[in-house]
Amino acid sequence: MNWEIVIGLEIHAQLSTQSKLFSGAPVSFGAEANTQTTLVDLGMPGALPVFNKEALRMAVMFGHAVNADIGMTSVFARKNYFYPDLPKGYQTSQMDDPIVGIGHLDVTLEDGTTKRVGITRAHLEEDAGKSLHEDFHGMSGIDLNRSSTPLLEIVSEPDIRSAKEAVAYVKMIHSIVTYLGICDGNMAEGSMRCDVNISLRPKGQEEFGTRTEIKNVNSFRFIEKAIHTEVERQADILEDGGKITQETRLYDPDKDETRSMRSKEDANDYRYFPCPDLLPVVLTQEYVDEIKASLPELPTQKAARFISEYKLSEYDAGVLSSSRPMADYFEKVNKSAGDTKLSANWVMGELSKLLNQNQLDINDSPVDANNLGLLLARIKDNTINGKTAKDILADMWNGEGSADEIIEKKGLKQVTDTGAIEAMIQEIIVANPAQVEQFRAAEADKQKKMMGFFMGQIMKASQGKANPGIVTPILMKLLKG
Amino acid sequence: MLEQNISSLVQKLRNKEITSVELTQSYLDKIKELNPSLNSYITVRSESALAAAQKADEAIQAGTAGPLAGIPIAHKDLFCTNGIKTTCASKMLNNFIPPYESTVTARLEQAGAIMLGKTNMDEFAMGSSNENSHYGLVKNPWNTDLVPGGSSGGSAVAVAAGMAVATTGTDTGGSIRQPASFCGITGLKPTYGRVSRFGMIAYASSLDQAGPMARSAEDCAHLMNAIAGFDPQDSTSAEVDTQDYLADLNKPLTGLKIGLPKEYFGEGLEQGVADAIREAVKEFEKLGASVIDISLPNLKLSIPAYYVIAPSEASSNLSRFDGVRYGHRCDEPKDLLDMYMRSRAEGFSKEVQKRIMVGTYALSEGYYDAYYLKAQRIRRLIKQDFVNALNEVDVIMGPVAPSTAFAIGSKTDDPVAMYLEDIYTLSVNLAGIPAMSVPAGFSNKMPVGLQIMGNYFAESKLLNIAHQFQQATDWHLQTPSMEKGA
Fold first, then answer.
1. Domain assignment of residue B109, given as a range
2. Cβ neighbours of B168 in A, within 8 Å
């Protein structure tokens, strides 16, 4: 049977606030257990939550970025369940009246087409603590540092039809929240976590199939793999005439399989009701408009500007705008290089290659954007050629100084003196009579190919310093005699 | 010395006619004498009280004393007190020592008041008779065969029997007013949001409100001056300016319009109570007030609405008592579920468990609309009744409770009869308005409380009305003889 895959995603983005959603405790990763807590985070009797206005601002920013309705009155609700790392016995979340309502996102896919994914809602909620099961002699330890950390849960419509689309969507959300500066996007530390809802239906059928939810998939690669694995599992069951059980599953990346966590029958009745300790959050139009006006340029807007302003191709613009640090870096390089095409090629090419090899983030590049730009400026003004520039970049990477310093120190300045170049070419013509003979006998289009040999000889003789732009016409003239 | 009001005690302390140490010691003596029989205190803090009194005397000497410097008071045992056991009268919190101070107790300490100890109550403020305490029931000093009312029974008895100058209480459905009525003292439940709930162990967050319990309206005003006001630590506390609650006490009542709701004088009201309330109203007419008959048509709905909303919130508020971080934990739990179930079954009394179960049920999927949402709609109707009535009259008066104090054990097996005790008080909490209980006579030799209900943030007016009544009458000066049965 020909199955259609139906995917909806729930993404938890941890907001980059200084303090927690309902307390003044600092938000930090990796601190000693239970040191980043107040009475509120510990769920002490009589402790009361106070809503962090910064989290509100961030949620409204996100709402604008996904073209969503902003909840002018949003209400915190309690989601009640018992768990040792949930200190109050309920999680404060939003249910009926979320801060962000219906919106949508236009996702650019690998083939350059655009897919519109609906956003059902996004709501604010507090994180729970952590249960630690090792080193407690058969008991469990509780760390409440993460308790009350602010999360924005972003729920998509079941509009996604493949693993590739899912990954493109998550990458887009990732780039939006990092562009907005409302989430650090660090998936390894759990700053962005993803739940994937998957079902299959025969192609052409309107009705959705029974879905499963895969919890906490924490990298782009795992999202893709987990979807493939789960789709295969469901297809096998359906092909055999079986039925899918609605359940929550876990993806095990080591074994590349999903396994059941709990079925629908075991699901909690969370007994949501409005939190009586918090007032409804009522926004003014002025507040909402003010945030809209102050939004930074978003990835799609930036890509469009790169195309119109720098005449970049759609592909280049897409790559360079995919993350804010990358885009900022490119624009700085371009500013000091004064050549857009050259800047784009080098940031996407040589620089990205070096960053990948060294597993570095562009923010941590040992060569800053201004210095790379100055190196490229030396290509542009014919001081060096591209090949020499690559060697210089390697030296800059190793901290040997700026482009100009290295050019000076190593004497890499390109030979542009036409007299000197002519003399060099004459010597090569004299030294290679047979090749010259062949060249002169060849047809015009063959001659072009044979130029390569002479170019190579000249570069060898000049130790790569001869400017190809100057060499080519002189060489042609002298070869033809 | 024990019959004095706060104003004259403050005067005597400033004039050095007495010292706070002497005053505090005399109250500690009284507690030592009466508490074994009345059981109104769970914790008595003799040493720290005397040490604080010593400091108060020094502050008075130095001229740096706060407005309540040296006045011995006590707190209901659900206000968290830093380093001092806070039990909520529950086995669950028998070992709980908070590392923080509630806003109410902190502000009273700031004003210079001396804390004698923590008073008994119905467990987690759930009850109307103070029979439901892990630390034993509290007895009414007017007749020790009778209940003192609840849930702030210990606080009411401490004042009535002279074991504290004044006390704090909390009122979720009548828990300040009803015991004040039963014990012949004055109590004020302020507007919801007027007094911070920070550090108050929650029963039903949208209804809970702390307030003063004392011998007179004037004494209540003294405490209100310390505790009222916005608190950034409580998101539901009101950003409304406070007043000097003593300033308006002596305003004449000429032209005051009093509404008498017919629903407060219907079936189930004890004749002696009705008579006392009618007499009190006549007294107000003498003081220049006029009386208008009004109606609060949805009063009867307040009981079912309250007994859905309060348990719903309680079922969630009390989830934190799970034996994981503090409070009672069962011995040798087999696993997590066993720990939860046994810790909570052992730590909570039957009444508390019953309300948790009712609330859990009301919030469950499939029942939420029929119970919780419907109760919220009724709540809005009740609020509207009061808003409409208070557009026509300045205040509403009626009885606090249908009867005077009842016999210990007489209603413990009949929860509906017990819940009906609150018929005249619950609706005030649902609406969020302020209300007082003021001594207004006797029926069957037991005190009767007059309830005065006012508009939002009209505490000053209520205190003024009550004070004028107390200038004209002496019901609030009557004290139990403590001879019979004690």
1. 1-486
2. none
